[in-house]
Amino acid sequence: xxxxxxxxxxxxxxxxxxSCTKNDGDDFDFTPRVVCSQGxxxxxxxxxxxxxxxxxxxxxxxxxxxxxxxxxxxxxGPGRVSYAFTSEGTKTITxxxxxxxxxxxxxxxxVEKMESLQSLAAxxxxxxxxxxxMCHRANTSNLSIPENSAMAVEQCIAEKVDIVENDVYxxxxxxxxxxxxxxxxxxxxxxxxxxxxxxxxxxxxxLKDRNGKVVKGQKMxxxxxxxxxxxxxxxxxxxxxxxxxxxxxxxxxxAANGMTQQVLVYCNSKDKITEAYKANPECNVxxxxxxxxxxxxxxxxxxxxxTQCSWNPQTKDCSANGKIGSLTSVSSVTKAKSLGTIITVNxxxxxxxxxxxxxxxxxxxxxxxxxxFGSCQCIHGDVGKEMRDAIVAAGRQVLNx
Length: 401
Known about the structure:
By secondary structure, this protein is α/β, with parallel strands linked by helices. The protein is built from eleven helices and 18 strands. The strands form three sheets. It has an eight-stranded parallel β-barrel, surrounded by six helices. A five-stranded mixed sheet has the order 2-8-7-4-5, with helices on one face. Strands 1-3-6 form a three-stranded antiparallel sheet, with no helix packed on it. Helix 10 (about 365-370) crosses helix 11 (about 385-395). The radius of gyration is 25 Å and the shape is globular.
């Protein structure tokens, strides 16, 4: 009986030993190494946190981490240090360890001239007179440019727009594409519901401009193409409020492009907000003013958040335009502001044809909007240059002069 018991204990110990040393993912990899959050050669925005982790080294190992010429840290044992670069350009991160030597110790990070969304939020809070311009579907007053197209993004950048807004849907073969509508009927020379079409089928059609004319060679963009086009150049607000795209897929695709600090993710419910944070705790989730508390409850404690309300230039109260279909109460805006969120205002008035397009934004309208929402620090509309001019004429400042 003793022999049986001894062999049983030995067998159990052997199995336990194997399970503890099995190299099956990071949880079981005990090789000393360095990991940079931006990878071997990545990008970051100004004031975006870049972290370096020292893993699986002895408690007595001393590591020196140099973030270019800007900052040097010393770390004893395993751990992580973070730093946000304050100047643009290519930065070299070097790590030296003693007494051990770790194979990969040099990383390149290109820092864009744009500041991170969290840094931008801090800038806005320091200057309440500053107001951003967000363009709906990347539209401008040039109706010959298709909405949400590469041409539209380029025009917005040329007009010094701060943020382009888009919506995403999922194709039959699981690819995210940028489209305001669930079908391609209005915006292309084809027809069909996006979820019933493959990407190849959608790409076989050309986009139409806002006058309904086909623009040869302008194709509907995948979300990945859209992200790459905007990277380091303009902020994005991706609307997945009532769209069929997977929140998790959208958030992960943003992170895979290294753009978490460049993209606002608009979620219209507590469940979607929670899913976005689960997919990436550092996600810049954006929502309606009434969801402000949900943003704070689920988000990182040191983050700042943007919330949206709506305004109709035909009225002087806080009622929303007919396309949103719910009221923006003064109390919900006041509460969202008191919670520290940055107030953005959707200024897309209803129209008889239901398109929400408009070709102007006047100083009088800007003054009316600011009179209703004194805390507004971003206007969401269709005409970037006209909005910028009206904001300045109304006595406010713009980010891109």
